[in-house]
Amino acid sequence: MPDTQVAAAPRPLAAPRASATTSPARLPATARKPRHKLLGGRWRRFVSPLLLVLLWQAASMAGLISPRTLAAPTTVLASTWELIETGELPYHLLVSLGRVLTGFTLGVTTGAALALAAGLSRLGEEVVDAPMQMLRTMPFLALVPLFILWFGIGETPKIALVALGATFPVYLTLFAGIRGTDPKLAEAAKVFGLDRRGLIRHVILPGALPSALVGLRYALGSAWLSLVIAEQINATAGIGFLINDAREFLRTDVIVVGLVVYALLGLGADALVRLVERRALAWRPGLLKA
Amino acid sequence: MDIHAPALATHDALRVRNLTRRFGENTVLDALNLDLAPGSFTALLGRSGSGKTTLLRTLAGLDDAPPDARLDLPRPAAVVFQEPRLLPWKKIWQNVMLGLPGAGARRRAEQALAEVGLGHRQDAWPVTLSGGEAQRAALARALVREPRLLLLDEPFAALDALTRIRMHALVLDLWRHHGPTTLIVTHDVDEAVLLADRVLVLDGGRIAADIPVDLPRPRAHADAGFAALRRRLLAELGVGQEEAA
Ligand SMILES: Nc1ncnc2c1ncn2[C@@H]1O[C@H](COP(=O)(O)OP(=O)(O)O)[C@@H](O)[C@H]1O
Ligand SMILES: [Mg+2]
Q: Which ligand is nearest to the CA of B44?
């Protein structure tokens, strides 16, 4: 049933356009029109943020916003350049990236391993899933005091927090993806001679991938948030330290630089997962012509 | 779970003795006996819920047979389901060669696709195929295994009438070419008479009617004898009276 529905979907959509032009009938109509809109919209979307920045600059120059409250955009730009030149920004950026990469890798590995254990075996489910479902209801950032007691105030609690933030989204989505395997597909694969290993490799895991990639995106967001919180714990390096240090000296310009860097890193990471998604899920109807 | 039914014969005749299957109170197959000659083409008719799919699943080895049943089943067996059941994340040729061992698998898959007229679509993703194309890919996936037993469970029920006619011709072609013992489940009396040498009606958990079709091929609805056979089968299915009038 689902197969036939999906296969039939593009045709009714394309029909009215195909009769007007001789364009390929198979191309879903939705794939084209919104694309142009998106391109036009992309420029329009930058107009209002730009206006805000100009307004901010004007207000700063007019003395309406004191530098103690918020530095002017031009000051922020100058400070950015200065921080880059002195090597401060690259250094702290590398420290933060190191934390997030280590923690994220750890968390994704743990989450995926647990999900595979719970998803692929009954015993694994009984052992792993119940505690995971209980733990996930707790806001993991509430663990910070405990982590400090356990791990001190060095790198360990920071990385552990990032790892924890990444573990749950990956676990939940991969587990759900594995359990959501279409039994009809699994049955067909069995008729055609796939053993348990082949079934996992060719049917279960590829089928769970879309869900798992959504989890990966959540995990990135969560890891990022954890990093920001973790870097408030007595850090001596990293973007969070840069921000805290700047606060002591009322350097709002440096604080803004730190915030912008956090935002850019988040955007970059999200774009990376999107790219992976587009490649790994090339077979999906929505992505076929995108 | 187990793909292999308990007793496997190496010869091509299919023999089922004393097959009973129950779901709770509901006895779907009741000490059923069935014989299919090697290389024969048989259609299985029956009301909805009469147990056609249940029988087919046991013949395919998808469900374990009870220990007191005796089954001699040609192997390898291949199944074409009502839905194509292609893995959406594998290209068509990858779907066809799924589970095939050996280095020549891809070439064999491409040959099978060419045979069902899908050679030009072998690199496509399944979602881009039409219903008929997807079902042809499913046929190729079954054939590439050179099955000695080919089981089809209402394979064309979801297709439009024109596509169905083309699929009928294709199935007959492939059957003549490869010669597997073939059993097609259908609820369409015309389809049964057009395709099969023999039509069985499943009712009350047993083969309630066994009717040979000795019309010359290729067959058409207008042929002498077609209408009579059709009436007889409809009567067996309990819709004869109104239809015959
Ligand atoms: N796994 C199952 N569990 C319980 N009842 C089943 C199951 N499979 C089939 N049945 C029942 O067995 C009967 C025969 O089903 P089926 O073989 O699918 O019929 P058909 O294919 O002839 O339409 C139906 O009443 C159906 O509800
Ligand atoms: Mg059925």
A: 1
